[in-house]
Design brief:
Two copies of one chain form a homodimer.
Chain A lengths: L1 E2 L6 H8 L8 H10 L1 E5 L4 E3 L7 E15 L5 E7 L4 E2 L1 H6 L6 E14 H10 L1 H27 L2 H16 L13 H8 L3 H13 L3 E4 L2 E4 L2 H8 L4
Antiparallel strand pairs in A: 1-2, 2-7, 3-7, 4-5, 4-6, 4-7, 8-9
The structure holds a DNA duplex.
DNA sequence: CGGTACGTTGAGTCATATCAACCATAGTGG
DNA sequence: CCACTATGGTTGATATGACTCAACGTACCG
């Protein structure tokens, strides 16, 4: 964790990539810019551990984090990712519970840290901000509920296709049609909720079926419609 | 849906079974008591459908609801239950999205309906209430995340034991040690995320192992420690 | 150069889903 | 009052998706 020299201003982030802090009034923004810390975190850094108390929330200025729970046998279950503009750790702060997941950097990240007290103060001072935050947590709850349905009812094959499409929508493709997020096979398995070997086998099936192309960890989406058909995309 | 004659006062509910509305100040309580409607709903009633917009939230004064999503093939996945004191529909109202689940009465219920506008107004007027509501949604998010881990990593056997213990904690036992909530085998399967036949087989295994006793839909918890062992209860 | 982490493939196993038949119960209508 | 039907529960047989275990390949790194 290194202090980051070129500290981003919350106003800019709010306008360029839509953080929730754009709801704040100018005085609050000033206070926030003063109170927050901004640091660069290398890949592999753990921001907080499942079960621990968190001291505040992180706003992602750049890079990618994964949030996961750890099962009995040590196997990770990835719950979500956080990228530019996303807020992390707020669930624990607002519910006043220990963190329900571990947050780990998977692509070098510039993060702004906002102390819990500060966040709560802003909620209490600014009803619009409170509404926005509530909206965010309720949306995340909606996503989680959808996830429950999928894991409970879809096959691994369907879910993997689903996840590839989700990653495409969330992180986008580069000019060559390659997914803009790089994951290990194990991480893919930990999203889908399956064994690493199963992911490997299914990916190479998708490849023979001309749905994707593989080059190490780079995944190129070749036939999106085909993936949608497999995923039983309906909503 | 029949109008309910003996309308409960929000102050009483707040003190006797801890609704979130106990955060409100006296004027807000008065307004709420005036604005809300209270009705009796019979078993089987659907309060709102997945995908539809909801006009407000329901506060459960009595009875039990199930909230579920419906899969492609029509199979339900139960997300949670709501009983005395619980709030239902708030996710949709606060996220300004259509409902992500269907709410159905499974034990005759007395429900107070609070219009969306009213709820939002209270959030904006009362920061403490906003915090409480946010806390509630974040806690539900924590539960959902735990659910994701369980479904993804535990076996059906483990999850069924888990669910029985959960139902025991949430709804309690009567004097004979029998679960205070009555579910069909299919509903149990729709919580666990498995086939009805699997639930039946596992329940009768649990019965031969002297962990539970069965009498129609009544389930008696005989050996809680044993169930905990099966469920891999650790947190 | 050896070490470590990741990726791949094959073979065998098992938990769970699926399909099918059958029983019990209760409500319905002629 | 009795078929009739619907719903839920149970059991058995069978199929198979997915996991596990094991071996081996590959690549990067100090």
């Amino acid at each position: 964790m290194k202090p980051f020299t070129d500290i981003p201003c919350c106003t800019n982030c709010g306008t360029t990539f839509n953080t929730i802090f754009k709801e704040l009034n100018p005085e609050q923004i000033d206070l926030l810019n003063y109170e927050k810390g901004c640091t660069l975190h290398k890949r592999g850094t753990v921001l907080y551990q499942e079960g621990s108390r968190v001291a505040g929330v992180y706003c992602v200025n750049n890079g990618i984090l994964k949030l996961f729970k750890t099962g009995l046998d040590g196997k990770e279950q990835i719950l979500r990712f956080a990228k530019k503009g996303d807020l992390v750790g707020y669930r624990s702060v607002l519910s006043e519970e220990p963190a329900c997941s571990t947050a780990k950097v998977i692509e070098d990240a510039v993060l702004c840290f906002i102390p819990a007290k500060m966040l709560v103060q802003m909620v209490k001072e600014n009803p619009e901000f409170a509404m926005k935050l509530m909206r965010m947590s309720c949306q995340e709850l909606g996503t989680a509920n959808k996830y429950i349905l999928d894991i409970a009812q879809k096959t691994v094959r369907e879910r993997l296709a689903d996840i590839l499409l989700f990653l495409k929508n969330d992180f986008g493709l580069d000019n060559d049609g390659i997914l803009q997020i790089t994951l290990t096979r194990e991480e893919l398995a930990n999203i889908v909720g399956t064994a690493t070997e199963s992911v490997i086998r299914l990916l190479s099936e998708f490849k023979s079926d001309k749905l994707i192309e593989l080059n190490g960890r780079k995944i190129k989406i070749v036939n999106e419609k085909g993936l949608e058909r497999i995923a039983n995309f309906y909503k």
